[in-house]
Specification:
The complex is a heterodimer.
Chain A lengths: L84 E3 L2 E13 L17 E13 L4 E11 L2 E10 L3 E18 L10 E2 L12 H10 L3 E17 L4 E17 L3 E6 L3 E5 L2 E18 L3 E14 L3 E5 L13 E2 L4 E5 L4 E14 L3 E14 L12 E5 L20 E3 L16 E17 L2 E15 L5 E2 L4 E3 L6 H6 L5 E3 L23 E15 L2 E14 L7 E12 L5 E14 L16 H6 L21 E15 L2 E14 L4 E19 L2 E19 L20 E20 L4 E19 L21 E15 L4 E15 L11 E2 L2 E2 L8 E13 L1
Parallel strand pairs in A: 7-14, 11-39
Antiparallel strand pairs in A: 1-2, 2-3, 2-40, 3-4, 4-5, 5-6, 6-8, 8-9, 9-12, 10-11, 12-13, 13-17, 14-16, 15-19, 17-18, 18-21, 19-20, 21-22, 22-26, 23-24, 24-25, 26-27, 27-28, 28-29, 29-30, 30-31, 31-32, 32-33, 33-34, 34-35, 35-36, 36-37, 37-40, 38-39
Chain B lengths: L14 H6 L3 H6 L43 H6 L14 H5 L22 H4 L32 H4 L17
The chains are: A mainly beta, B mainly alpha.
């Protein structure tokens, strides 16, 4: 079967795996609640199933030939039934496998993304099941270890139809970069310091580049380790209860950002890609009771999730000597350090209940209510972590450096960091942000006749957002904050985003900068209603029609009301023996209230009552160009088609084809204008005999995203497209075209004395981003207009992988497995063009060299012993 | 009864293979450069979707993905990405609305499951009268005539790093 895990760039589980068979269900979470529904790894994505010895009788217990699902897909060849040994009243079976892997020393992020191959090392796999037929008790344990950072183990004990207790532990690596050159000391912690060869705030680009080039390559990754335990069982034949708790810990580091303005003119401002430490825990809890009776069904549950971050922020020294626009004679205080806030500790509570009444003629009436609270009240960090002074001024005679001694009326552009680098500079010490969601839904399903079914429902969803923060410094009565680690003070000598509240007086001029001081309020209401009918016009032919209306009413967006009207037509045909055909078509039209791009004024200084009183005639400048339409709420028309056919050309063969397309058109002059996707797949599978399977697949998909934008002038007084601030001559257009080609084949065959598993997979992705512009004024650098070309070089990603394994049974209990897995990947991403030469460009310092091409081979051998 | 899967009595060897019988194009998306660890066997389709029925089968497609196991798209994502949950001191509205505004959960040809390359992604919505609305070209990448931070490496996100939201008092523009 082409789309089994062996085709997904993974080593076939047949290569190294285990024989495992159990009647117990060991999934941690059920399909309705929670995650952790599957535990496996890249070596065994099917958790060992694909490696099991196949039953040579196939699925032909009573009737010969291959068997299929009701929709026509061939079932896999089943595994051999277990041959348990008896131990007292227990039946025990299982398997232990020990192997050796060689994968080489070179590491590549794309190849090693979610796996920790050992360069050379042992791998183990085991699975043991014990069953007590007299009362249906069972116990299972299984696990797999690729390396100490990539392993999982789980155990379950229970009694069929009574209860089940499960526990697990797992490691999941996530490699983000294998060619990073972080120049700082302390990577992985929350205080990044420069090496002694660099002066914070005083180094040249050449000096920084030299240090970057000499920094050894480093791998940046985040590893997840998760523990979980669950309990579920029958309280009575109709009542069940469940409880599961998990604790996940993440540790590692990842590339991140660090702004100090922009690299204006190559020396003013700086941009640094720092390394963010990751050290956090998430405790998840799901619990509930369910009742399933003849007439009534209920489901009540509580879910909780509690996130805790070790760090509230991390600091990093800034290496570059940032210049200033200040007049001659004035100098700027060096910017030596920056800070980045981390994810805040937060809590999630969800209480939900559902009640269903069974109605005559296969009908159901159900009600669902859910209350969710997301809360965050973490301690806030100070607005800055700068030390000394910040801004521009005249140093003391004979000195070239500014310091505390230079503070005073003679240097109005110089302020002490102590006014802002303390929590006393905050209007409140904790965040106190809450999100309260309420959901209520009613559904009715009726089947008036054997050929007609009707279903309808209504839903209300409300999100209430509470956040009363205001950026106000009580120690100096300033509104605002220090933008980008204070660089605007030092580069421009203006207190960007800061206004003195005491100076808001009609007698005083307008503050130089009128910025945001309050958060967005993101409450919303959603109303939904739908109605549908399905008509079985012949025994195995069903037509369906559903109308859906959805109204989304955000409190703080460009539209007060967004309406979605959609109709969906469906057809399922199984009348013809050799064909299952499904077709869906959906038409969706999004419209709504008047679109107004300038709705965020309430967050600005100019909305303060004291400001309004002082400057009643003030008219704020445009938020953005008036023709911009944000695609999520703008008028839009979507057409979506899904076609799927499963054909049975012969008893042992299946051909499946799918076509999916979505064409989305936005009525926007500025913003996203269209987003079209199309995909087609063809899949062929042949099972000529039990324990023999050959499959081939092909896939093609494309997408096109188109947008337009306009380069505005700083300080525009009008947001009208075509005005001086947003001239039509500055308009530009961009298309992002993507193509993906997939193919693969797999063969699994038992030759009696040995069995073989072979597969090949291929993927080629090509992304072409092209653009046009009305004039040079559209560009960041107008001087590039003549040489800008028509687009970026293609962004490509190509992966080939070949897997081969041979299993040789020596005895009924002992077998030898040999396997090889070869994968090569080639990637070109223009975001990282030139990074292999240098990671420093003026005052821009990068850490991550970008994704790398690779060619890797993995060989292994193992001994498998059935218990 | 034949056993085709280690767990769950599936019709194929795993949950993902079972879903992949019909949802072949979705399954192939997981092969792309940027994907969650489903092909590697570290998660399954069932971690996000409930094939037996769910609350979120109707409504605004950005807010309500098909057959999700929670009330909204975002709550589904928060099950594994609780660090993104907030709520934040300074919110980025499209993030609070739906993770799908920027991310393609089944796989992407961009980094971090983004639906479009940076800065194209951001410039669909940002056209303010400063650097946000200007066209970046091939001359602005690392080997171009005028390398520009807004398009190199992480692009906009090198400066606006806390793009999911910021808890910094100086973070209204997600710089800190």
């Amino acid at each position: 079967m082409p789309l089994r895990s062996r085709l997904m760039k993974s080593v076939p589980a047949a290569a190294i795996g285990f024989v495992f068979s159990s009647s117990a269900t060991v999934t941690f979470a059920d399909s309705g609640v929670g995650v952790d529904t599957w535990r496996a790894n890249k070596l065994h994505p099917t958790a060992g199933q694909a490696a099991e010895a196949l039953d040579l009788d196939g699925t032909s217990w009573l009737a010969p030939g291959q068997h299929r699902s009701p929709t026509g897909n061939l079932y896999d060849n089943p595994a051999e039934p277990p041959h348990p040994d008896s131990l007292s009243v227990w039946q025990i079976y299982g398997m232990f496998e020990l192997g050796y892997l060689h994968s080489g020393d070179e590491k590549y992020a794309l190849y090693d993304r979610y796996v920790r191959w050992p360069s050379n090392g042992a791998v183990t796999e085991f699975a043991v099941t014990a069953e007590r037929p007299s009362d249906g008790s069972y116990a299972e344990a299984r696990g797999s270890r690729i390396s100490s950072e990539d392993q999982y183990y789980q155990a379950v004990y229970g009694q069929a139809g009574a209860y089940k207790i499960e526990a697990f532990v797992r490691d999941v690596p996530n490699v983000l970069s294998t060619d990073a050159r972080p120049i700082w000391n302390g990577v992985g912690g929350n205080n990044l310091t420069l090496p002694g060869s660099l002066t914070p705030g005083g180094s040249s680009s050449a000096q920084v580049a030299a240090v970057s080039a000499s920094t050894p390559l480093q791998r940046l990754e985040v590893d997840r380790k998760k523990y979980g335990i669950s309990l579920s069982g029958y309280l009575t034949p109709a009542w069940t209860a469940y409880l599961n708790v998990s604790d996940e810990r993440r540790e590692g580091a990842r590339p991140y950002g660090g702004p100090f303005g922009e690299d204006w003119g190559g020396s003013l401002g700086a941009v640094v890609e720092t390394v963010k430490p990751i050290s956090d825990t998430t405790v998840n809890l799901n619990s509930g009771v369910r009742y399933a009776g003849q007439s009534w069904r209920t489901d009540f549950g509580f879910s909780g999730s509690f996130y805790r971050d070790k760090y509230s922020s991390y600091s990093f020294q800034q290496p570059f000597a940032i210049g200033t626009f200040a007049p001659p004679g004035l100098v700027s205080a060096p910017i030596t350090v920056g800070q980045m806030s981390m994810e805040p500790d937060n809590d999630y509570y969800n209480l939900h209940g559902a009640l269903t009444r069974v109605l005559p003629r296969n009908g159901e009436l159900s009600f669902t209510v859910s209350e969710v609270l997301m809360r965050q009240n973490d301690s806030l960090i100070p607005p800055t972590n700068c030390q000394g002074v910040i801004g521009i001024g005249t140093p003391t005679a004979g000195s070239t450096q500014l310091g505390l001694q230079n503070l005073g009326p003679q240097n109005p552009g110089l302020i002490p960091c102590s006014q802002w680098n303390t929590t006393a500079a905050l209007s409140q010490r904790t965040a106190d942000v809450n999100l309260h969601n309420t959901l209520a839904e009613a559904k009715l399903a009726l089947q008036p006749s054997t050929s007609l079914a009707v279903n309808t429902g209504i839903k209300y969803f409300r999100q209430k957002y509470d956040n009363n923060y205001i950026a106000y410094n009580p120690t100096n009565q300033n509104y605002g904050y220090l933008t980008e680690n204070g660089v605007f003070f030092s580069t421009f000598g203006v207190p960007a985003s800061i206004a003195n509240g005491n100076a808001l007086n009609a007698a005083n001029p307008l503050p130089p900068v009128i910025g945001r001081i309050r958060p967005f309020i993101l409450s919303m209401d959603e109303y939904n209603a739908y109605g549908g009918v399905s008509w079985r016009f012949s025994e195995r032919n069903v037509l369906g029609l559903t109308y859906n209306f959805d109204q989304y009413k955000p409190t703080s967006r460009e539209r007060e009301r967004v309406d979605d009207n959609s109709i969906k037509l469906t057809w399922t045909e199984r009348e013809i023996d050799w064909l299952t055909f499904r077709a869906n078509y959906t038409l969706l039209k999004q419209s709504g209230g008047t679109y107004n791009g300038d709705v965020y004024g309430y967050t600005y200084l100019s909305a303060l009552p004291s400001f309004v009183a002082a400057y009643p005639s003030y008219v704020p400048g445009p938020e953005t160009v008036d023709a911009l339409r944000k695609y999520d709420i703008a008028d839009r028309t979507d057409n979506k088609v899904d076609l799927m056919a499963t054909v049975v050309p012969r008893e042992d063969m299946t051909v499946t084809g799918t076509v999916r397309g979505q064409w989305s058109e936005n009525s926007a002059m500025i913003g996203r204008q269209r987003n079209d996707t199309f995909a087609a797949t063809l899949q062929w599978e042949w099972q000529p005999a039990p324990a023999t399977d050959l499959s081939v697949y092909l896939g093609y998909d494309r997408s096109k995203l188109g947008l337009s934008n306009v380069s505005g002038s700083f300080g525009a007084t009008s947001g009208m497209l075509g005005s001086a601030g947003y001239p039509l001559a500055n308009q530009w257009w961009e298309d992002d075209n993507e193509r993906n080609y997939s193919a693969g084949t797999a063969l699994q065959k038992n030759f009696g004395r040995f069995s073989v598993d072979l597969s090949y997979n291929y993927l080629y992705s090509r992304v072409v981003t092209s653009y046009t512009a009305a004039s040079a004024g559209a560009l960041v650098f107008p001087q590039d207009f003549a040489t800008m070309g028509s687009g970026f070089s293609p962004m490509t990603y190509r992966v080939d992988s070949v897997t081969a394994s041979v299993i040789v049974p020596f005895t009924p209990r002992v077998s030898l497995r040999l396997f090889d897995y070869y994968e090569r990947g080639h990637i070109d991403d223009w975001h990282y063009a030139g990074f292999n030469q240098s990671l420093v460009y003026g005052h821009e310092l990068y850490t991550d060299g970008g994704p790398q091409s690779y060619s890797q081979n993995l060989v292994g051998v193992s001994i498998s012993i059935k218990l | 009864m034949a056993k085709f899967s280690t767990e769950g009595l599936m019709a194929k060897a795993s949950i993902n293979d079972t879903c992949g019988q019909c949802h072949t194009d979705i399954r192939q998306q997981f092969n792309r450069r940027s994907h969650m660890p489903l092909p590697e066997g570290q998660m399954s389709c069932d971690d996000c979707h409930n094939p037996h029925g769910a609350l979120t089968n109707n409504g605004n497609p950005l807010l309500n993905g098909p057959l999700l196991k929670t009330n909204t798209v975002n709550e589904t994502c928060y099950q594994c990405h609780a660090e993104k949950r907030g709520p934040w001191l300074w919110e980025h509205p499209p993030v609070r609305e739906s993770c799908l505004n920027c991310h393609s959960p089944h796989g992407s040809n961009q980094s971090s499951l983004l639906v479009a390359p940076v800065p194209v992604l951001c410039q669909q919505c940002h056209a303010a009268n400063s650097h946000a609305g200007a066209l970046q070209t091939r001359q602005n990448i690392g080997i171009g005539a005028n390398p520009e931070a807004q398009i190199m490496g992480r692009g906009c996100l090198t400066c606006h790093a806390n793009i999911h939201g910021s808890n910094a008092p100086s973070g209204p523009r997600f710089h800190q």
